[in-house]
Write a structure and sequence with these properties.
By secondary structure, this protein is mainly β. It has eleven helices and 50 strands. The protein has a 22-stranded antiparallel beta barrel.
């Protein structure tokens, strides 16, 4: 039966895909409509391009051409809606007329703009939740792999932590961190397909992005929306002649900031002193040190970035099409590390009749990643007195230091990951009567991953070697699909009462498997990299699979009276296979109100506000993507054997249940309230908003249980902590056209957020932030932020033995070491003396943007920053013996002749995690500077537009932190610690946009 269902679903998809691929002209349809032609101009009589011309009550429409003309087929009694941003929307009855010429007037209300929301669109005036919208054109200005990175600084409430690794997805946090041990990332919905990352989407294919920030906007997505929702709408074809576009840029990347390390002689002096103070002897003859290797420079390069895109779009009354192909390559700043991706997109729509259309959005991406080990930590610690290679060509090493030669490590590592991903949907829209539409879609995401990792046999020294070559092969496949059907009814009664109702049902199926194997003794020849070429008596195989299924019923009702008062509510009932039988289902909901104050009679004579909207909403959403909540308790295989039945029987290996699970495991719910004020003033030149939010999440944490319960690690994950995020967002944007040649804009947004663990139930012992040397530096407790840094407090440096003898101190303390405060006064320095010194959660983050257009020139600048948070310099706090140190540590350390310093003596001891390593995480960065010039082409060779541009991405950062970067994404309890970080890069590039 299962096999039958699998084949049936597969063949239904294939049949639907093939059907959609036939030209629309194969279908016969008759129309009682008339062909309407016309022209749209502005108040000065100038033709207007790209004006939306829609048939009221339907999904049909077109846009005007460069000369302002349009052609559309509609019923002779239809009403045409003409709209363009910045202009008043007009509704024009056809009344049987085949020619319609329209003049649009400026100063359209910002509240008439259409906003993409879950499972539909609404006028901005009807939106009762908090929704941030970013145009695709704002994203494509930046040389980034994914549009998620392009959201940085663009909308309030969204914190984007960049990563320098080629091919990596940035980390998004929407209005703070809510989940402690679960997945804290938002979901992305690409044309209806829910996904966890959008690295497969070409940014040039994106029309717009909407960020749903509060529960009243998110609740339509129920259990998936607990950490926020990012809606991605890709480009579609529009009726009119074919358009062809080329977008090209190329440039280079370099590290934005470096850390100055001690040179060869300084390192040798520091290391000798540390060994002598530790009771040993000097290991270097400083006078013979002539080598000064900059290991950071040795493993890095200027990384070339390239991007090429072509798109073709157009359409008729029956068919619209959009095709694009793109190639992106990022060499990265680490030698040998690169990422390349090819993407093809086909978005077509076929209108079979005025009441029926079919369509598909298909995206195929093929990517290849050449991974390398993160060698920045080794480069930081490696001795500068050691050369990369000796004169005989062998790799250099320092036998007194347990650090690998990072250059050799890069050269001996081969690690490829190839990914093929097919994502998209096929859909049907059926409108049997005016205002009623049935939307049925099959959404899918198919992934195939192939990984090959090979390390040859080599010997550098006893601390860096591989006795036998090893080959690791990995294969991963997954298929995730969503079948979604929803019915939407829109109707206006008596020109004042607007009603919109949506109801739907969705079923999800996500199945995947992975097979990993490794074998030793494979020859160092790429054509022989197969498992059967190795020692088959020494093979390791690991295989696993997963299956997650969800079912959902959802609905939304929106009522508008006289375009002034809006009421909206939504509900969703979700079921998930992630939870036990009795707890599989959950209900999520929202309700909200908005009031368009400027539509009131008493506001007609005032001259302050052009638009003024007040809204408030409340809702409940959830998160089912949680760790360590397996429905089935795992069986643990023991090392012990027992003779069941006596000695006459063979001993059997013991198995047991030693990992307890919460029998009441269910959703991680978030409830929240949101209130906002949106306005435009000064003849619509200044727009702005002020939002307040307050949300609480009942989060899963690891609770300590007594050993008598039989749990091996004495930890059970349970919904035992309340996490609250509350704050205020402010957005202001000024936009003015001074004359026909010059216009400018300036704007910004700022978010104030307070993160707090309000309450804990049970014995919470969530200590984390491991440094890998036995030390931990974060502790999550009630009345503190998630992942708060928990360290010892320094209190100066011991200047003599008497100070040590007369104070509480750690074992082994000596002159020149840090003093630590005995905060509880018990005469002992231990964990009870640790203090909380902030967390990685910023109290404030903000974005600034500005620009102008002057004749053919355009200029824009974007900036981003945050403040009020802390970071932990983990690489500086890890010392295993004879490691290199930073230049200012080597030169400024405590000595008998330098006693007024704040830097301790030279030491090889494992550092105690203290306030010395906690630094400010505040920074301000110029995100993007772009200068462009529109070349006058006068339609030569069919060219309609040619723009050349130059861009600097992340050229400058202002920071207090002494490390590589203060942007240190990670899990909720481990973020903000610089250990194995890939530095942020600056990119400088040039390119052009060409349209035919």
């Amino acid at each position: 039966m299962a096999v039958h269902k699998k084949w049936t679903a597969g063949w239904l998809f294939v049949a639907l895909f093939l059907t959609l691929s036939f030209p629309a002209t194969m279908f016969a349809a008759t129309y009682a409509d008339i062909v309407i032609k016309g022209k749209v101009v502005d108040e000065a009589g100038e033709p207007m391009q790209a004006v939306s011309v829609a048939i009221k009550g339907t999904a049909r429409g077109t846009t005007t051409q460069q000369d302002g003309t349009f052609t559309i087929t509609a019923d002779e009694n239809a009403v045409l809606i003409f709209s363009f941003i910045g202009y008043a929307t007009q509704e024009v009855p056809v009344n049987g007329q085949v020619e319609q010429n329209v003049t649009l007037k400026r100063n359209a209300s910002q509240l008439d703009q259409v906003v993409v929301v879950g499972y539909g669109t609404q006028r901005k005036s009807q939106v009762v939740g908090s929704v941030g919208t970013v145009k695709g054109s704002e994203i494509t200005k930046q040389p980034v792999l994914t549009a998620a990175q392009g959201l940085q600084a663009k909308t309030s409430g969204v914190q984007v932590s960049a990563q320098g690794t080629p091919g990596a997805q940035p980390q998004l946090r929407i209005r703070g961190v809510s989940s402690i041990t679960g997945d804290a990332n938002p979901i992305y919905v690409v044309d209806g397909m829910i996904t966890s990352d959008i690295t497969n989407i070409n940014s040039a294919d994106i029309e717009s992005i909407s960020v749903l920030k509060d529960a009243s906007a998110q609740a339509i997505y129920g259990s998936r929306a607990g950490n926020g929702v990012v809606l991605v709408t890709t480009k579609k074809g529009k009726m009119g002649k074919m358009k062809i576009g080329f977008d090209v840029y190329s440039g280079f990347r370099s590290p934005t900031s470096k850390v100055k390390m001690a040179d060869g002689k300084s390192y040798a002096q520091y290391t000798n002193e540390a060994n002598i103070r530790g009771g040993g002897s000097a290991i270097f003859d400083v006078d013979t040190i002539n080598t000064n290797t900059d290991w950071f420079d040795e493993i890095t390069r200027k990384g070339i970035v390239q991007n090429y895109n072509v798109n073709i779009s157009g359409g008729t009354e029956k068919t619209t099409y959009f095709f694009s192909a793109g190639y992106f390559k990022d060499n990265g700043i680490v030698k040998g590390n690169d990422f390349q991706r090819g993407v093809i997109r086909i978005n077509n729509e076929y209108r079979l009749a005025s009441w029926l259309k079919l369509g598909h959005n298909l995206n195929v991406s093929i990517s290849k990643t050449n991974n390398k080990n993160n060698e920045f930590t080794n480069a930081y610690r490696m001795a500068p007195s050691t050369p990369v290679k000796y004169a005989d060509g062998s790799y250099g090493f320092e036998q007194n230091l347990s650090v690998a030669n990072p250059v050799a490590d890069l050269n001996y590592t081969t690690d490829y990951l190839n990914t093929v991903r097919l994502q998209g949907n096929a859909y049907l829209d059926f409108s049997p009567i005016r205002g009623l539409n049935l939307h049925s879609s099959f959404n899918f995401d198919r992934r195939n991953n192939n990984a090959t990792v090979y390390t040859p046999a080599y010997f550098i020294w006893s601390g860096q070697k591989n006795d036998s070559s090893i080959l690791k092969m990995g294969r991963g496949n997954s298929f995730y699909y969503i079948v979604d059907n929803n019915l939407t009814y829109n109707h206006t009664f008596n020109d004042k009462h607007e009603l919109s109702v949506t109801v739907g049902y969705s079923a999800e199926h996500n199945k995947g498997d992975s097979l990993n194997a490794s074998v030793k003794g494979v020859p160092n020849r790429r054509n022989l990299w197969y498992l059967d070429q190795g020692d088959l008596t020494n093979v390791t195989i690991f295989n696993y699979g997963q299956l997650v299924q969800r079912a959902s019923a959802y609905g939304r009702l929106t009522y508008t009276y006289d375009r002034k008062y809006n009421v909206s509510g939504s509900a969703r009932r979700d079921g998930s296979s992630n939870f036990p039988v009795g707890n599989k289902w959950g209900t999520f909901y929202s309700a909200g109100l908005s009031w368009i104050v400027t539509e009131e009679g008493f506001m007609k004579d005032q001259n302050i506000f052009d638009d003024l909207k007040v809204r408030v909403g409340y809702g409940r959403v959830g998160n089912d993507n949680l760790n360590n909540l397996g429905v089935l308790r795992g069986i643990s295989i023991q090392e012990y054997y027992y003779n069941f039945g006596g000695n006459a029987y063979s001993p059997q290996q013991a198995i047991t249940y030693d990992q307890l699970k919460d029998a009441n495991a269910t959703w991680e719910p978030t409830t929240g309230v949101d209130a906002g004020l949106e306005f435009t003033v000064l003849d619509r030149k200044l727009t702005g908003s002020v939002n307040y939010y307050n949300k609480k999440t009942q989060a899963y944490v690891n609770v300590t249980v007594p050993s008598t319960l039989g749990d091996a690690d004495q930890i059970v994950y349970s919904r035992a902590a309340d996490v609250r995020n509350k704050g205020v967002e402010v957005t202001l944007n000024w936009n003015q056209k001074v004359n026909k040649d010059f216009s400018y804009f300036v704007g910004g947004n700022i978010t104030f957020n307070k993160n707090n663990v309000d309450k804990v139930r049970g014995n919470l012992q969530l200590k984390s932030g491991s440094l890998g040397n036995g030390q931990i530096v974060t502790y999550t407790v009630a009345n503190r932020e998630i992942g708060s840094f928990w360290v010892y407090q320094t209190d100066g440096i011991y200047q003599n033995q008497s100070e040590i003898d007369n104070s509480a101190h750690i074992t082994g303390a000596t002159v020149g070491d840090f003093k630590y405060k005995d905060n509880n006064g018990d005469g002992v320095i231990d964990d009870n003396d640790r203090i909380f010194v902030g967390s990685y959660q910023p109290k404030v983050y903000y974005g600034i943007n500005a620009g102008f257009n002057f004749k053919q020139w355009d200029f824009s600048i974007d900036c981003y920053g945050n403040s009020g948070n802390k970071v932990f310099n983990g690489k500086k706090a890890v010392r295993l013996g004879n490691d290199n140190v930073e230049a200012k540590v080597a030169s400024g350390r405590w000595t008998s002749t330098n006693t007024t310093t704040a830097i301790p003596r030279a030491s090889n001891a494992i550092p105690t995690p203290s306030t010395y390593f906690v630094e400010s995480g505040s920074f301000f960065r110029i995100n993007n500077i772009t200068v462009g010039y529109n070349v006058p082409v006068q339609s030569r060779a069919g060219i309609s537009n040619l723009r050349v541009f130059a861009t600097a991405q992340n050229p400058v950062i202002f920071k207090k932190y002494s490390g590589y970067t203060p942007e240190l994404p990670g899990t909720a309890v481990d973020s903000g610690i610089e250990l194995n970080i890939y530095p942020i890069t600056s990119t400088y590039m040039a390119g052009f946009n060409l349209t035919f």
